[in-house]
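ping. complex inputs:
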Amino acid sequence: MTETKQTGDSPKKDHGVLYIGMDLGTSRTSVSASNGVRETVHSLVGYPKDVVSRKLLQKDVLFGKEALQHRTSVKLYKPLEKGVLKYMSDGHNDAEAKINLKAAQELIGEAIRLAKPRKDELVYCVIGAPAEASMKNKGAIVEAARLAKVDSVMLVSEPFAVAYGLDWLDDVLVVDIGAGTTDLCRMHGTMPEDGDQVMFDTAGDAVDAELERRIKQSCPGADCTIYRVKEIKERHGYVGDPPERCIVDLPVNGKPTPFDLTEQIGQACSILVDPIVKGIHKLVASFDPDFQHKIKERVLLAGGGSMVKGLDSAIEKAMKERLGGGKVVRIEEPVYGGANGALKVAHDMPADFWEQLK
Amino acid sequence: MGGLRETLKEAVRQLAFRTSLASLKKKGVQKVNVLGIDRIVALIEAAVQRSLKSRLLGADREAVAAATKAEFLRLLRTNEDLQRQKSEWEQQKEQAEEEIDQLRRDLAQQNRSLQQRLEQDALENRNRYDGENALIARKVADVMQAIAGNQGMSAKAAEEKVMELVMDVVSGEREDAEHARRALQDRDVENLQRRIKKLSETLQQTEQRLQHVAATKNIESGISSLYREVQGVSLGDVLAHKKSELMAEIFKANLELQKRTGKR
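pong. complex structure:
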């Protein structure tokens, strides 16, 4: 039985061990835990704007969809941008940056709470962090998890977690399409190094921005927030031949008006293909020539962006033109792929390592 | 070590209690020995150092001291969090109790108003009935006098006269009954009843909230994990060796991260 030393009123953690795998994403944060809990929350944090809204909402902080629904009464923060904590990305440390850090920490705390840990269990957490997150950024993530009463915490690169979760450890190329960044990672039986990874910011948010631009251009008078654009993309997103016509109601002067957005959605989503294929090309070309054919046949598409219909076929088609062929497999659970992998890493980590990082 | 010293000072301050010279004199104390807080902290530190020195010969004392400090600070932080949480719960509880008290007072006030109104109505009715009774009596007397004064009046004519009187009284009573029914729907009474209903509902809701607040302290117990112990890579896994190596590398990277970011 594992036991930690506790004193005073702190609960004795002698009941069991709860593993939590977390995918900390720009758009969504997902957790999978060894008590069977799987939850996802939009990476949004809202603070009531004033005393009146606090009284109305009866909360000091709101998360995810709830924060979005009350966005007129709360100051809304999206603490992650392009895959990393926003507060340090611009090098400033002003009041806004501090609130972003606080929001990020509270988001991680909320994700831990969603996993419903018992007070008497040890909580060991593995967080999938962006492959290229800075040291300071990773430190802030670890600190946030500690504040959320996690006993021991480790970070792994997100694409690695996805591959580990599926036991694909050799000759695999993981393409993790998030909201802020797309991460490509070459797995060859060891921990990926810098040369094994490629990252760029043509990802979900870039598609949203492109779709918003196209809607504004082609649907005069239509009012559409970026949140609505995201919803439209998540519901109808496709590349290649459209599976169906995408008729969407958008308000024009207050009146819902149907628009056919089939072309706009297809064109916006297709911006993902070219940079991904270029990244694959780079990682394949720089790999051991004897194994290049193997890695081309094992391209794993993960992350929320992988839900775009026809993306796997479009990448395969482009790979055939540029690399002479290739096989792309879409992960079964794009939302929980990273969290499930992180959970598996947590499970497989020896007790001694967890103890040393406490 | 500076942070630890300050924390120790704070802890000593929190553990100390205040008393006056007068109360000490009352207890028969004439002289006191004064020991400064810095001295107390220094003694604690020295004691810890001596204890470590005597028990951990050959071991890395600095590392143990650093770990002890980290653990002490963590426990202190946990304690602060718990205190804060406890105080929040208590505040919520007090607030809910105050609301309930206020609602109870309002409810009692409304009930008193209703009672006064009903009593006033009863008095008004009684006065009205007395006047009506006198009127009926006068009418009966008039009819009886008319019958007695007219000797030649037939029995049928007398019956008609009495019947007329009775019907007059009955129709008046019917009208009064109708008025009484309407009075029951009097606006003030209705408003009062509506307020009472609303207050009762609010009271019920607040009591439920209080119960919830009281219960929440215990219900959020979480969901048990499948595992009682730390697992590690399964020996039966065909990739066990490779996975163990990967775990070691992840651990090393995280240890390095914690060292570089000053978490250790």
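Chain A has a mean pLDDT of 86.
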